[in-house]
Specification:
The chain is of the alpha+beta class and 654 residues long. 52% of the residues are buried.
Length: 654
Amino acid sequence: MTMSAGWYLRRLSRMGPQEVGGRVGDAVRRRRWRSAPPDCPAVIGARFTAVLPVGALAAVPPDAAKRLLAEADRLMDGRAEYFGVDRDDLAAPDWWRDPRTGRRAPSGYAFDVPYRDEDAVGDIKQIWEPSRHQYLTVLAAAYALTGNERYAERVAEHLRSWWAANPPLRGVHWISGIELGIRLLSWVWIRRLLDGWPGAAGLFEGNPVALNQIWHHQRWLAAFPSRGSSANNHVIAEAAGQFAAACAFGWFPSSARWRSAALRSLERHLRANTFPSGLNRELATEYHGLVLELGLAAVAEADAAAVPVPTTVRLVLLRMTDALAAVVDNRLRPPRQGDADDGHGLVVDGAGTDRWGSLLATGDAVFGRLAWWPEVTGTDVRTPLLAALVRPYGRNASADKRSVARPADRPAHFADAGLTVLRGPEEIWCRCDGGPHGFLSIAAHAHADALSVEVRHDGVDVLADPGTFCYHGQPEWRRYFRSTLGHNTLQVDGADQSVSGGPFLWTRHARSRILVADTSDEGVGRWSAEHEGYRESVHRRRVELTAATQELRIVDELRGPRRAVRLAFHLGPAVTADLTGNRAALTWTWDGEDRSAVLDLPGELSWSAHRGETDPPLGWYSVGFGRKEPATTLVGTGFADGAQGLTTVLRFRG
């Protein structure tokens, strides 16, 4: 999608004077850099010393290694899947081609490329993702575990191909700082995992082309940091990648300066991006995972290079890990909240590895698990490799732990983030959303989902958050998946609670307020909140989960004048609904067992079922970025005011 002049004006209105000044400086610098870029300073006698300790690879569990090698062999055949598109061209990639549209990004000065215009460039996410080189970290890990040089040779072939096709500041891969930061982190790990290969030094520190790329990546990141209203997960990736490279590839005159600046940025923005409770301020769970992965990788790099790290960095990561352990369901699935683009900080695992279990396993290795943490039964490759680099301060040294009070019991209410989890018998899990609309003035990754609920039974989505699906190129789908109607909450007069100014931009944010969050009674959990996003009216919602009856009761009130409303409940893709009047019989199968529930809907509204509709979109579920499938959405239409409450009751059957 191409941004209009109006979008840029609205975007400008969300910036403060300091940010505007910084962006003007960026624009001047981009014009100055348009001339021939400088050469990398001469590097003499560079050595790579940030190697894995002896025994680290031997600690990788056999089943995790087996999954990794299966993935590596698939990649060697040129096959991979990115955002719902199966590819068979990765044996010799065209780094600028989008396989979904068939378009090829234009060349030229990087900052002239209209990367948001799909007609000119193609799907930018499809083009960027392979160039994060995380598939090459998988191949490098396969070499490290097997010693089979064909994996290393493929990595070297692809890196040389990429470097030749993407000289500094030319083309689409030099536009976005998050891409450069994650790519640098991948290169650090590729060099580390290839350390036993005879060609490793000649590929990196002995290769003038590689040195030039590494230097220019860091020069770019030092010059163009994400700032102000854009200082979200992007700035974390930029700082983590630059810090990792300045630690592991500290061969340049500017390395010490880059390392110090990146560490200051990382410390500052980790704190800024994280609530004191440990949840990510973007209120987008996938970005909680990304930021945590990036932070852990940066700390591992610091410890490998013996670079002191402020205590606050470790404490933020500790709080993030405890918060993740608190909010997952019994299958280790966290909430589906806000945007999600399947972004990862460091990938050295094969398909089928549980991302969230892996993060909790790493948290256990680094910080030590608490008694209330859920059990992690799966295995991964990344945890033993990271744990081998991180100094053993987490489990054995008490100094770090004395600086923060870790929760003695599993938290259920995160007041600063407005997130509450009600838990019941038969593994009933219910997330209630009464938090801020999003992070910073643009709330880029927020959805208009105030007061929404998300309900699972034994890990199965029953009342589901439909997800994200896309960012660029399909505006009608982007609008739907982040709309109020696209969530389990109340829509008034056909409008969203918060006002969108375009992609990644909200110009007015609904403000929510939690009234009750009582999870102390094991028999009944209660939650209530309200928001004022509909101007003259206030939407108030009460939720009760009763253990004895396995019953979830939701009461919606619209305080103010009589207005047209739509109340939506999105069912998970595994759930079938038989709607009769205002009662829906829900059925699904899980682990070979038939399960069921009854959903009694407010009789004051007229109810209809929708599935897989496209004009306009309604009745969809996105399991991951770029992928969607039909799912049933129940919509009640009518009028409401302060004189009545709309009561919905979900009863699970034993």
